[in-house]
Amino acid sequence: MLSFVLIALASLFFTGVIIRTKSITAGRKGPGIMQPMKDVIRLMKKGSVYSRTTSIVFRLAPVVYFCTVAMAALLIPFGSSRGVISFNGDFIFFAYLLGLGKFFSIIAAMDTGSSFEGMGASREALYSLFAEPAFFIILGSLALLTGTPRFTIFSRHCTLAPTSPTPWLFWRRWCWP
After folding, report:
1. Which of 46-60, 79-93, 153-167 has the lowest mean pLDDT?
2. pTM beyond 0.90, yes or no
3. Residues 6+ away with beta carbon under 8 Å from 37
4. CB 157, CB 149: distance < 8 Å
């Protein structure tokens, strides 16, 4: 459960750090580091506005996307402890969860009835096309190296503070530059 809380807090904090760094390098003062958290609180207080041309898919997509990301965060282990949800093949389930969330994001963009829907959906798909294959190739490589498709085993083999000689030998051979 600690990993889920840390992932939720880190996502807001690091987003603020990235935005602040970009603004400083561009020569602007920029927002504070806590601005994304303030934005989330402000947006949660607002109501929803839906077009008359959208269907239930448009209303359902943000909920599905959030649930898939939250479920994926529950699969990730913290240090050498297991994730909240851990089973054999969990990294494959992780990949399918992220794919399902991305699919609903794209079909929600296509459901808006705007002339710009195709451009937005294709841009979203293009960003996924660039990032996700490399991520999944890395996960597949870790599965081949460790011999198991489990996140817990990945984290035990590539930890910085090994508890037994076997992970240390793996770390020295495969994870050390």
Report:
1. 153-167
2. no
3. 12, 13, 16
4. no
pLDDT tens-digit profile of 115-128?
Answer: 788 788 888 888 88
Contact of 69 with 101, CB cutoff 8 Å: yes
DSSP string, 10-47: HHHHHHHHHHHHHHHHTT-----TTHHHHHHHHHHHSP
CA 81 to chain centre: 20
**1-15, 89-103, 142-156, range with greatest mean pLDDT:** 89-103
- The predicted-structure confidence for 56-65, as pLDDT tens digits, reads as follows 998 999 999 9
Q: Which two tokens stand for residue 106?
A: 């794209």
> In sequence order, what are the residues at sequence separation of 6 or more whose Cβ sits closer than 8 angstroms to the Cβ of residue 12?
36, 37, 40
Quick one: pLDDT at residue 177? Answer: 46
Tokens of 112: 């808006």
Question: How many Cα atoms sit within 13 Å of 107 on the Cβ side?
Answer: 13
Q: Phi, psi (5° rounding) for residue 78?
A: -115, 110
Q: Where are the domains of the chain?
A: 1-47, 51-175
Estimate the crossing angle of helix 90-110 against helix 117-146, to 10 degrees. Answer: 180
